[in-house]
Amino acid sequence: MTFDVARTLWSRLRQAMTIPQQTGKGRDRESLAVGMILCAFFLDLAINVHEGEYDAVALFWLTIAAFVCFAAITLHLGPAVEEFLQRRFSVIVAVLAFICVCILLYQSRNDIEISLSVVVLAVLGVLQVSNLGSMRTPLFVVLVTGFCLVSVVNFTSPQRAKYPKIDVFLFQQSAADALRHGQDPYAIRFPNIYNGDNSRVFEDPHRYGPGVKVYGPGVVDDNGYITYGFPYTPLSLLMVMPAYVLGGDCRFAIVAAMGVSALLMFAARPGRRAALIALLFLVNPQGFFVINMSWTEPLLLLNFSLIMFCACRWRKGLPWALGLFFATKQYTVLAVPLLLLLVEGPNLFKELLKMVAKIALVVAVTNVPFFVWNPHEFIRAVVQWQLVQPFRRDALSYLVWLYNHNGGAKAPMWTPFLIVIPAIIFAIKRCSHTPAGFAAAIAFIYLIFFAFNKQAFCNYYYFVIGAACWSVAAMRSEFDRTSPAIGAAAIVAAVGGALSSFTLCRTLAPF
């Protein structure tokens, strides 16, 4: 009886998957574009309040971002509103980017070189509002190159260079060094840098809670060493290896990942819109902070950018790019159901199976060699480590708010997984079967997942910001029809405003 029911369900699933897509599901809306850009902007503000850690104001901006993201996917506005948004889109993005630039200038007000560099990048970026013609691409390449140079200077120059007091940097540097010398990165042990002098940053019980602040029980032994090996996937380590071998610092790979992601945003649908979206992505007020902390989410975003570029320009490469994406971080497994938004052809079920097979091949090729090297240590580090991570009261999450307002009661560990299931179903039903719809769905489900997680910080939301930007950069048509007069006015206003803000920041610096 059970077998017959299962066979019937399987048959119906195959039948449903062989029905061609409805043409209405393949349309991208301008209201979605504006909504996702606003979502990215509000997330920028949220992680900028306290560097991505919990704060009431940050939670407010996070709530606004989540609401806007939900509304952008749900609402279908009338033709008049869509037409208005089409005409004003470039101006909207330019204004949001200008606000981010002003925040960056204020943050770097005591560093004249970085401030001037930000002004130059802002001017290069805002030029994209005008009709540049054949000069658009080279100017954009100069913009991305400038961003990468400033980012590198920010952590390599003798006046600014400093090693971040964060375990992620230690994990990547040590694992890369171990692999370089033929050692298993999942069998090595790391010192707990939050012991001794460095533990001061975690000694606020009102903020972090009592007991172990960073690691779960049994993670640190009596000698002050972590009992687990490299806690990330092999692909993320392989992606930073060239940076470590050639430059001695894994953060070179993080910078490259951000720059290439921006270039892919522009290359997927070249034009004014894509250039401005990439600009908004690059001037994220916490972008330099993400680089300095050496978080791995930019690596994930790079592989996600490869997915989006292939979906827009090279469909044959899409399954392989998806494989790299799923092999980069453990939580990417949540995106598996969203593959339904990317499959094409008369027999969707067959195409989905072929896609999954290629994805599985890439995941196996990148993981099996390290698994075979030492299965026990690999499983402990890649899987078990994630399960023993403690609840963090400094996480930018609604669970922290509930903890603070519910007598210190912690939500069950499975809470984010329970909440993300309806979010995934909603995204599949409401998002268009296009690359832009897929990116919007990714942004939505991971925003919900992180917002209700026991650990949610700047790096996690940085990936959501990138996905939200991609949902606009991947749209099929160049809707924008900004007149030359509006473009010129935006350039003058942005340049003048950036210089004025820079002058104001320098004036207020002593105070």
Account of the 3D structure:
This protein is an all-alpha fold and 511 residues long. The chain has one domain. The radius of gyration is 23 Å and the shape is globular. The protein starts with a helix and ends with a helix.
Could you give a short description of this structure?
With 511 residues, this protein is mainly alpha-helical. The chain is built from 21 helices and no strands. The protein has one domain (32-190, 226-508).
Q: Which terms would index this structure?
A:
single chain; 511 residues; mainly alpha; 65% helix; globular
Number of domains: 1
Residue stretches low in confidence (pLDDT < 50, at least 5 long) are 12-24, 200-212, 478-511
Counting DSSP H or I runs of 4 or more residues, the number of helices is 21
Strand content: under 5%
Shape: globular
Helix content: 55-70%
The main β sheet shows up as: none
Radius of gyration: 23 Å
Please write the string of helix (H) and strand (E) elements.
HHHHHHHHHHHHHHHHHHHHH
Overall pLDDT score: 84
- Roughly how many Å apart are the termini? 77 Å
Structure summary, number of beta strands:
0
Structural class: mainly alpha
Task: Please write out the topology.
Layout: H1 2-17, H2 30-49, H3 56-74, H4 79-107, H5 112-126, H6 136-156, H7 167-180, H8 205-208, H9 234-247, H10 251-268, H11 272-282, H12 287-292, H13 297-313, H14 318-326, H15 348-373, H16 375-388, H17 398-404, H18 415-430, H19 435-451, H20 458-473, H21 484-508
Helix pairs in contact: 2-3, 2-4, 2-20, 3-19, 4-5, 4-11, 4-21, 5-6, 5-21, 6-10, 6-11, 7-9, 9-10, 10-11, 10-13, 11-20, 13-14, 13-20, 14-15, 15-16, 18-19, 19-20
